[in-house]
Fold this sequence. Notes:
The protein is an alpha/beta fold and 130 residues long. The chain has four helices and four strands; from the N terminus they run E-H-E-H-E-E-H-H.
Amino acid sequence: MRDLRLTNRCWPRRVNLPLLRRLARALLEDELGVLDYVLHVHLVTAAEITMLNETYLRHVGPTDVITFDYAGDSRLAALHSDLFICLDEAKRQGSRFRSSWPVEVTRYLIHGVLHLRGYSDSRSGWCKVM
């Protein structure tokens, strides 16, 4: 099954969802070889990601990206996940790193998918990859 859904819950900020969808498909299928996936990408506000971060991860405040992996084992070929990207954080970090917020959103998408495939930015050696 190949089910990729993107929703922008951060109106009025407009996002090129067709482009982001093409990037996500290329990452999953062409780069990572994942051909069986259910991935729902939610573009959200700082308030929504803060609630998710504090409720499920027990971290205070907003963050850039949060993933929920329902497959249970990132080594499996299949992917079944929700990925939340904070557009407010993308705008803030874009200003900080002299990048545009759409570029930051793309980075967060890649970062989140890599997490879902088992990569960890807290392990030495993988931080650069992430």
